[in-house]
Amino acid sequence: MSETRIRIISALIIAPFVVACFVSYKSLVGLVSSIVLLASAELFFSTLMRYKRIGIVILYTSLVSIFPILYGLWFINRPVELLSSIFIIAMTLTLFTIKDKNKVMEFYGIFLIALVYISMNLSFFIPLYMKHGAAVALLTLTLSWAYDSFAYFFGISFGKHKLPSIYSPNKSYEGLIGGILGTIIYTIIYFMIINRFFDYNLPYWYSLVFGIITGIFDTFGDLFESSIKRAYDLKHMGNFMPGHGGMFDRIDGLLFVAPVIYIFLEFMSK
């Protein structure tokens, strides 16, 4: 079976479950925490487990995964204090656990990447849902899906001019432009549906901004994760989704897109 077919089948199996979690706020919080759990575990096991420190890896995964739950259910107005507290706890325990001065900075760095890049950035779906509604939160998720799909298709079909990146050399300008254009069209259609059938009144020019934001920041997010994989000589962080790699591989671009979409919407709402 071709890789493209495997990617499609895998996405069709998992996507409906993910979309269903946007039905209620608590299920969304559970979804975010579950994805953080899987993605951070993949990162920790792919990088730090070479030192055979299973205890600290499990501890790190637990601390990173609990952030969306605590933030979404009890500390919605105190995210900075919560983030700082988790960081201090993790670093204090690391000091007592990792005695090798040549390794300790790697543990610090990988945990910080998981806490900020994965857990905090994905948790932007929580205020997106609360302040801008389920439809906008779901749109933010599917923007990344749409861009990845269009960019993959245009890159495979027409990609001749490669983006200047040593971390992901197969990306092309054709894929980038095609992905942005496809995402803009997708967003216009999405706006037409929610503006007509639901209580939304989103300006159609947002579709242009959303498409550009997604194209640029999804690409940067993917390149950031690719740089980590290249540093550790990895093709994928995991195998959770056949044809896509691990959960971390699937959400890498989204982790840059979600915060920027939220910041844009907050700026426009003032």
TrEMBL record:
The keyword Lipid biosynthesis applies. GO terms for biological process: CDP-diacylglycerol biosynthetic process. The chain crosses the membrane at residues 7-25, 56-76, 82-98, 110-130, 136-155, 176-198, 204-224, 245-265. Pathway: Lipid metabolism; Phospholipid metabolism; CDP-diacylglycerol biosynthesis; CDP-diacylglycerol from sn-glycerol 3-phosphate: step 3/3. Keywords: Cell membrane, Lipid biosynthesis, Lipid metabolism, Membrane, Nucleotidyltransferase, Phospholipid biosynthesis, Phospholipid metabolism, Transferase, Transmembrane, Transmembrane helix. GO terms for cellular component: plasma membrane. It is found in: Cell membrane. It is a multi-pass membrane protein. Its EC number is 2.7.7.41. GO terms for molecular function: phosphatidate cytidylyltransferase activity. It comes from the Bacteria. It catalyses: a 1,2-diacyl-sn-glycero-3-phosphate + CTP + H(+) = a CDP-1,2-diacyl-sn-glycerol + diphosphate. Pfam families: CTP_transf_1. Belongs to the CDS family. PANTHER family: PHOSPHATIDATE CYTIDYLYLTRANSFERASE. This is Phosphatidate cytidylyltransferase. The lineage of its organism: Bacteria, Thermotogati, Thermotogota, Thermotogae, Thermotogales.
